[in-house]
Amino acid sequence: MFDAPGPRARRRIFWISVVSALVLAGLVALGLRQFAAGGQLDPVRWRPYLTWPVWRYLLGGLWSTVVAACATGVLAMAGGLLLALRPNRFTRAYAEVMRTVPVLLLVYVMLFVLPSFGVNLPLFWKLVVPLALSHAASYTVIFRAGVSSVDPGQREAGLSLGMPDGVVTRFVVLPQAVRHMTPLLVTQAVSLLKDTSLGYVVSYTELLFNGRVLANYNGLLIQTFIVVAFVYLVVNLTLSRLAHRLEASRARTAR
User: Fold this and answer.
1) How close are the terminal C-alpha atoms of the chain, in Å?
2) Interatomic CA distance for residues 108 and 200, integer angstroms
3) Biggest alpha carbon distance in the chain?
């Protein structure tokens, strides 16, 4: 999408990165100093997080997070693919509107508005459905970009052989498009996984909700949420690294 930066731009990016890293390191050091002054770094406060029962409870929340994210991903990708393959005013308007509406607002609609009309879903679906509606719009854009990246000659070749347009799309265009957009799908999964933290609003027992319960139980608020943040960081960095590797692999294949 952008030209490769020249020598001057690379130097500017380098120094901006260095300054940003130093500022971030300074903020971390200041935070650690404040934590140490308040006794938050005392080993006794961190000892509970070296025990299996605590981790079993947090990992149970992580499993619920993964289940909700997988269910949301399946529904959102199915909806996004359907909208991408049916380009019209409605699908374009849906993609534009849903990408601007906060996900939390959709969760509140599912939690407070729909029950007044007799629609009261289980807690799991009160989280999954709003997330799926929101992320379907993002997947629509990704699928459209993937389909557009396929050489038009591929479709024309299939049509010239007498294959119906739907068959060409399903067996010729989409397999190639999926290879192009796999890194973007993984990157979108990172955003989706983070959005499952809204499960605390509907009392769904995902990772953040379990962290809040644990902090209320042991009184170690800062320690608990640092550990929860660390778990999110590990999972999301793993997915981000996977996306980078897939992108690098696709670039090597394209050469």
Assistant:
1) 18
2) 12
3) 76
User: CA-CA distances (angstroms) from residue 216 to 80, 114, 209, 219, 221?
Assistant: 39, 31, 11, 5, 7
DSSP character string of 86-136: S-SHHHHHHHHHHHHS-HHHHHHIIIIIGGGGT----HHHHHHHHHHHHHH
Positive or negative: CA dihedral 109, 112, 118, 124: positive
CB atoms under 10 Å from CB of 82, counted, come to: 14
pLDDT tens, residue by residue, 48-61: 999 999 999 999 99
Kindly state the DSSP code that residue 200 receives in the 8-state scheme.
G
Count of CA atoms in the C-beta half-sphere (13 A) of 195: 26
Distance CA 139, CA 164 (A): 25
Token output for 109: 């609609």
Q: In whole angstroms, what is the distance from residue 207 CA to residue 58 CA?
A: 6
Dump pLDDT digits (tens) for 95-150: 888 888 899 999 999 988 988 888 888 989 999 999 999 999 999 988 888 887 77
What sign does the CA torsion over 201, 206, 212, 214 have?
positive
Residue type, 132: A
Cβ(103)–Cβ(195) below 8 Å: yes
Q: Name the residue with tokens 């989280």.
A: 127
Euclidean distance between CA atoms 68 and 199, whole angstroms = 9
Distance CA(106)–CA(110), nearest Å, equals 6
Q: Provide the token pair at 55.
A: 């981790």
Residue 2 confidence (pLDDT) = 46
Joined together, the tokens standing for residue 56 give: 């079993």
